[in-house]
């Protein structure tokens, strides 16, 4: 496979871990074709479309995965500022240790001075984020800061979010529970469960009475 066809994970670039503005809150990877929602949150185009498809099947009301504001439409606009910020991101080639802009990855692959030996290097791959590293010691340091080991669950809705976004998500989630249609859905669900439990107890009672009557007749 030529250098141009090698994926980022196979080629091996080091990305900065401190700047949360360059990572999609859904896939937790660097933005790819970023778009902006009506509530001014950015996502990868593919990530948000997949999210909308999955959430439409299970929820009556489509909401933002971060702030839970309702999305009445499905129109998203390209986030040019985010795209420009990502393209200018400085990343490091793990093969030749050259610093390049994120938007120049393909150009660097075609002229990397060590590309002829890059496929012979033994790289360790993180099973969570697919980034590659030289040796176990580098991998262990990566585990302490890997973006995908920092996932946690919202104590209100149970959705899995990155711990960096947890405070904002839970604050919006808690505030939205008081007036959104989700609260009525939860109450309705609880009421429906109570009805089914009561009906089940009644059926069990009828069956028990019938069994006792049958045994009495046989005696």
From TrEMBL:
A biological-process GO annotation: ubiquitin-dependent protein catabolic process
Q: Which residues form the RING-type domain?
A: 24-68
**MF term (GO), any:** zinc ion binding
InterPro entries from the entry?
Answer: RNF_E3_ubiq-protein_ligase (IPR051438), Znf-RING_euk (IPR027370), Znf_RING (IPR001841), Znf_RING/FYVE/PHD (IPR013083), Znf_RING_CS (IPR017907)
What taxonomic ancestry is recorded? Eukaryota, Metazoa, Spiralia, Lophotrochozoa, Platyhelminthes
Instruction: Report what the protein is called.
Output: RING-type domain-containing protein
**Sorted UniProt keywords:** Membrane, Metal-binding, Transmembrane, Transmembrane helix, Zinc, Zinc-finger
- Membrane-spanning regions, if any? 195-217
What's a Pfam family this protein contains? Answer: zf-RING_UBOX
By its UniProt entry, which SUPFAM superfamilies does this protein fall under?
RING/U-box
